[in-house]
Every structure is written in C-alpha cells, then in structure tokens.
Write a structure and sequence with these properties.
It contains one helix and five strands, in the order H-E-E-E-E-E. By secondary structure, it is α+β, with helices and mostly antiparallel strands. It has a domain of 45 residues: Roll (SH3 type barrels).
C-alpha cells in the first residue's frame, strides 16, 4: 500500500527538479567572452569581414550592429568567428 506524498514533499521535489534543469541548461550553453557594447570584428566566409558593436548575444551567436550603417543592420556571427580589433 502506497501513501501519497505530502504537499511539502511535492514542493521540495519540484524545487530540486527546477534547480537541476536550470543548472544543466547553463552548463550546456557555451560561455561567450564578449559583452553588449564591445567593438569587435566578425570574419566569416559567407558574411564577410565587418567591424561592429555587439548588439545581441544569443548563444552561440552574437549579433554585430554594423558601424556606419544608417539602418542599424545586425549581422549574426558564431562567437568563435569574432575577435577584438587590432
């Protein structure tokens, strides 16, 4: 014969599960070494080489807002294709 778990035990189990799922999610996402507002150079055979400011970070991609672009175009690069200007 099984007894149902108390509401407190169910809440505790739910808290532990949500903590573990959040921790695993953060561990799988790559650590991107750049921050919004930094000036970087993106070099990609498809997008070309562009100087821009980091506008969006959505792992593993980083969106650069092109310097001097009146429309404020954003081009996305894999974070491994970015570097600091010389």
């Amino acid at each position: 014969m099984e007894f149902p778990a108390s509401p407190q035990a169910q809440r505790e189990r739910s808290r532990v599960a949500s903590f573990l799922s959040g921790t695993v999610g953060r561990a799988r996402a790559p650590r991107i070494p750049f921050r919004v507002g930094q000036v970087l150079i993106g070099d990609d055979p498809f997008n070309g080489r562009h100087l821009g400011t980091v506008a969006v970070i959505e792992a593993p991609y980083v969106g650069l807002r092109m310097a001097g672009s009146p429309a404020g175009d954003v081009i996305f690069y894999d974070y491994r294709q970015l570097r600091y200007p010389d």
